[in-house]
Amino acid sequence: MERNIKGNRIVIKIGTSSLINPDGSLNRDSIQKLSDVLCELKMQGKEVVLVSSGAIGVGMGRVGLKDRPTTISGQQAVAAVGQGELIGIYERFFAKYQISVAQLLLTRDVLLFPQSKKNVSNAFQELLQMNVIPIVNENDTVSVDELDHETKFGDNDQLSAIVAKVIDADLLIMLSDIDGFYSANPNEDENAKLFSKVSRVDHSLINAAGGKGTKFGTGGMVTKLKAAKRILDNNQQMILANGSDPDIIFDILKGQDIGTWFTNTESTEMEG
Ligand SMILES: Nc1ncnc2c1ncn2[C@@H]1O[C@H](COP(=O)(O)OP(=O)(O)O)[C@@H](O)[C@H]1O
Ligand SMILES: N[C@@H](CCC(=O)OP(=O)(O)O)C(=O)O
Fold first, then answer.
1. How many other β-carbons are positioned within 10 Å of the β-carbon of residue 76?
2. Which tens digit of pLDDT belongs to each residue from 164-182?
3. Which residue, judged by its Cα, is nearest atom 11 of ligand 2?
4. Within 10 A of 260 (CB to CB), how many other CB atoms are there?
5. What's the whole-model pTM score?
6. What CATH number is attached to the domain comprising 219?
7. From the CA of 57, which ligand is nearest?
8. For the Aspartate/glutamate/uridylate kinase domain, which residue ranges apply (predicted)?
9. What is the predicted pLDDT for the residue at 150?
10. Is residue 1 part of a domain?
């Protein structure tokens, strides 16, 4: 079934699992391909915001760590190393198209304090008018899940939903290493079925969501569902799909039945 998708102002979130190879090396091809697709969307006149994870994964490679640091401060440190390199890579790929990027490191304050929300919203508006592609990540040095602090965020999945709200986006496209949201983790249950459409995120769905797929990911499916709930509560739309080939974004925007479509205009459906 074709989907009725409005996609003039789009937030695209890409997870670490799509940016880092299983051996920990940077997946340059994937980042380049994603950058090509985003530039093409810009040239079609669309407004695009990228929420990119990967700071910790890139930083681990840079400082020669095979495993993610176990301490929060260790993760903050490698994120600080990786973020600069990550933005530098995006900057070079986008420069081929004479498109500039901007780095926005955000925390939950964006929603908690009306003045912060207004400031961030104004900055996004200016950047979009300047035809710049804003690239967002959490401000990992201050926003850690484990600290009970006003600025905590803990995951880019929910951050991307918050950004979609702040800029009043038509659509959030969430790209991961999996084809969508399944009735159980398909890496553990071969009978898991893909949901093609979800109209309500309730406890039974959250129970079907498991943790992250690789040592590089952060939130797994739980944080993606929490993001979807925020989107539905705000009457917006989200599509969760596999980011291994970023060209999938074009098919999503054509309304093809790809991944899981979170929309409260229709009832929940499973494939098959
Ligand atoms: N019900 C489910 N449907 C799909 N994937 C699931 C589910 N439960 C757990 N997962 C896991 O969530 C992973 C994606 O989350 P994560 O590793 O955090 O990726 P990303 O880095 O893209 O955010 C999948 O690879 C899969 O192993
Ligand atoms: N801010 C952290 C990642 C947070 C995160 O949500 O990661 P992921 O589950 O891969 O989207 C980073 O850039 O490494």
1. 19
2. 999 999 999 999 999 999 9
3. 15
4. 25
5. 0.93
6. 3.40.1160.10
7. 2
8. 8-242
9. 45
10. no
Domain count for the chain, please give it: 1
Q: Tokens 């979009």: give the residue.
A: 128
Name the pLDDT band for 154 (thresholds 50, 70, 90). low
Establish if 234 belongs to a structural domain: yes
Cβ(244)–Cβ(18) below 8 Å: yes
Contacting residues for 188 by C-beta, under 8 A, at least 6 apart: 210
The best mutation among 176, 188, 226, 260 to test binding of ligand 1, ranked by most ligand atoms within 8 Å of the C-beta, falls on: 176
Residue 168's CB is within 10 A of a number of other CB atoms, namely: 11
d(CA 155, ligand 2 centre) in Å: 6
Among 72-86, 104-118, 215-229, which stretch is predicted with the lowest mean pLDDT?
215-229
Does any domain span residue 32? yes
Enter the tokens of residue 164: 């979609």
Number of other residues whose CB lies within 10 A of the CB of residue 156: 28
pLDDT digits (tens, 9 = 90+) for 37-53: 999 999 999 999 999 99
Q: Are 67 and 61 in contact (CB under 8 A)?
A: no
The parent domain of residue 167 ranges over: 9-270
Q: Report pLDDT for 153.
A: 45
Is residue 151 scored above 90 in pLDDT?
no
Asked if 158 and 226 count as a contact pair (C-beta separation under 8 A), the reply is: yes
Give the largest CA-CA distance in the chain. 48
Check whether 16 has a pLDDT greater than 70.
yes
Q: Which residues are within 8 A (CB) of 223 and not within 5 positions of it... i.e. 6 or more apart?
A: 154, 155, 157, 158
The amino acid sitting at 262 is F
Tell me if 3 is assigned to some domain.
no
